[in-house]
Design brief:
The protein is α+β, with helices and mostly antiparallel strands. It has helices spanning 10-21, 65-76, 99-106, 148-155, 160-168, 222-227, 233-245, 296-311, 314-322, and strands spanning 2-6, 25-29, 42-44, 51-53, 80-82, 91-93, 109-111, 116-122, 125-130, 135-139, 141-144, 171-181, 191-195, 198-203, 214-220, 258-269, 277-279, 284-286. The protein contains 9 helices and 18 strands. Helix 1 (10-21) runs parallel beside helix 8 and helix 4 packs antiparallel against helix 5. It is globular and about 70 Å long.
């Protein structure tokens, strides 16, 4: 079987990994320039740099036995390590948060910088159309591994029941600020939670495997981000930086060598108890954290669950539905 997976974040790659283990061929398309998705690491050259920021997910936990085994493999390969300041069960990718995702992507046929604009079914087979007019296919099955808001655009044209699930799975946005300094900040804590409009602030350079100058990632809460979603990025950066300054002696920060804000439109989902969606008649499925909950681990589990549904014999699905 040939499957096309739209979205090469952790959920899509976990699905691809499991399908490949069962003999499927997978092709993944992602509009991003490289691996990471919401586990991205941004690396920039600027005054006093280079700087690196984990500007999406800040850490992940491993509570499910299968995911714990995966994290142990990442640790053994130098791709993950514990980060105690965020909690006893907190892990991060090393040397950047994107390391585990990049390693998974390297093992599969991933087409980055490929923006899928449309999904067409002809004579029982699937084709994708790309920005710029390209068309790829045929594929026997399709996996939509995108945030609910983006998945809706594809699901709505083919499966209204799935589309209704996506409508219910909408997420909150998050303004994230990345600030790099040429000198360490006089702040005792490496992690600050729920302080004013800051939902999170972390000394990125305190994470294991990091090198280079002082770097901080600041994230506003979902409600505040939604209320200020269309504000200028420079204004947002200064506003969140002022919140961080409250933790410095005298409320003063040195001038940052690098400062920018990133708007995550689809950041935090409430999740659902669905795990994954699969229509065996159409061979169309969806996976992602919006179908389980707002944790890296749950995105991985959702991708794996969808793969299990896809490879199950039809008679097994019928028996399960009858129960």
């Amino acid at each position: 079987m040939d499957a096309v997976i739209i979205g090469a974040g952790l959920a899509g790659l976990a699905c691809a990994e499991a399908l490949t283990a069962h003999g499927w061929r997978t092709t993944l398309f992602d509009k991003g320039r490289n691996a990471g998705g919401r586990m991205s690491t941004r690396r920039v050259e600027a005054a006093g740099g280079p700087y690196a920021f984990d500007h999406g997910a800040q850490y992940f936990t491993a509570r499910d036995p299968a995911f714990s085994a995966q994290v142990e493999q990442w640790q053994a390969s130098g791709l993950a390590a514990p980060w105690p300041p965020a909690g006893e069960d907190a892990w991060v990718g090393t040397p950047g948060m994107d390391a585990p995702v990049a390693a998974l992507a390297a093992a599969h046929d991933v087409r980055f910088s490929s923006h899928v604009m449309g999904l067409v079914r002809e004579r029982g087979e699937w084709f994708v159309t790309l920005q710029g007019g390209g068309r790829q296919g045929p594929f026997a099955a399709v996996v939509i591994a995108l945030p609910a808001e983006q998945a809706l655009a594809f699901l709505g044209a083919h499966d209204l029941a799935m589309a209704s699930r996506a409508i219910a799975g909408r997420s909150q946005p998050c303004w994230t600020v990345m600030a790099g300094f040429t000198e360490p900040l006089r702040i005792d804590e490496d992690v600050i939670r729920e302080a004013g409009i800051l939902a999170w602030a972390a000394r990125n350079a305190s994470k294991p495997g990091r090198s280079g100058p002082e770097t901080w990632v600041l994230q506003a809460g979902g409600q505040w981000s939604a209320a200020h979603l269309e504000r200028d990025a420079g204004e947002i950066a200064q506003r969140l930086l002022a919140e961080l300054a409250e933790f410095c002696p005298g409320g003063l920060l040195p001038e940052p060598g690098y400062l920018t804000a990133h708007r995550w439109r689809y950041a935090m989902t409430s999740g659902a108890a669905l795990g994954a969606l699969w229509n065996p008649a159409l061979r169309l499925g969806a996976c992602g954290d919006w179908l389980l909950g707002p944790r890296v681990e749950l995105a991985w589990l959702s991708g794996r669950q969808l793969a299990r549904e896809m490879v199950r014999p039809a008679d097994a699905r019928v028996a399960a539905a009858a129960r």
